[in-house]
Amino acid sequence: MLFSRKKLSSIKNESKRKEFPLFILAGSIAALTNVICRILLTIFLNFEISVFISYLIGMVTSFLLQRKYVFKSTKKSYKKSFAAFSLVNLFALVQVWIVSLLIKFWLVNFISSVPLVEFIAHCFGVGIPTFSSYFGHKYITFSEKSR
Fold this sequence. Notes:
Layout: H1 5-42, H2 47-70, H3 78-107, H4 114-127, H5 130-141
Helix pairs in contact: 1-2, 1-4, 2-3, 3-4, 3-5
C-alpha cells in the first residue's frame, strides 16, 4: 500500500477542512455571476424577473464549480447530482427572492436611487442561503452515500 491508513485519514481530513472555504469561493464566483447577470437583465426586464433568471444562471455556474472543485468525491452521476442540486437550490431561490424583495421594499424608504437599492437588496438576498445551501449540497446533492 502506497499510503498508510493514518496518512489517508490525514489527507481526507485536510480535504474536509478545505471544503467550506472552497464552497464559499465557488459560491462567491457564482454569486458574482448572478449579480452581474441581474444588473444586465434589469436593462431589459423588471427586477423580480431578473432576480429569478439570474439566479438560474448563477445556479448552473455554482453546480459546475461545486462538482468539479468542492465535492469531488461524489459518486453520483451528473444527472442525479443536478436533480438534487436543483431541489436544494429551489429552497434557496425562495430565500433569495423573498429577501431581495423585502429588502428592496424596505430600502426604498431610505435611498432614492432605485438601481442602488436593487443592487443592495439582491446582494443581501444572494448571501442569505449560504449555510442552508452548504449543508444541503454536502448531505443531499453531493453526499458520498449513493441514494
